[in-house]
User: Which sequence fits this backbone?
């Protein structure tokens, strides 16, 4: 077994369940990651721990489940939902990008 196969086997056994990831079992069934959820998690995780992000991520995708929904949101509501996560420029940029993508 090559190194890549061993690493993938290790991941299948030891991966962390995170709300933006597709589990190995779901992936094997053909489920693929949602680019919107991946993008949002990447922005939230910049200079912030996974544990701090999980609850905010769940709240955001519950309030704004699609990039179109985020684009339609009021900037004030996005900033309010971001409160406590820090680095507020990330929230402003997330909203601005959603506005452009949803055009």
Assistant:
């Amino acid at each position: 077994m090559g190194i890549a196969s061993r690493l993938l086997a290790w991941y299948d056994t030891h991966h962390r369940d995170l709300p933006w990831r597709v589990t190995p079992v779901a992936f094997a069934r053909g489920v693929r990651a949602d680019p919107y959820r991946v993008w949002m998690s990447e922005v939230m995780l910049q200079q912030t721990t996974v544990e701090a992000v999980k609850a905010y991520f769940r709240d955001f995708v519950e309030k704004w489940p699609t990039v179109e929904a985020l684009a339609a949101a009021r900037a004030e509501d996005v900033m309010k939902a971001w409160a406590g996560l820090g680095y507020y420029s990330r929230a402003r940029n997330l909203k601005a990008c959603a506005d452009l993508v949803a055009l």
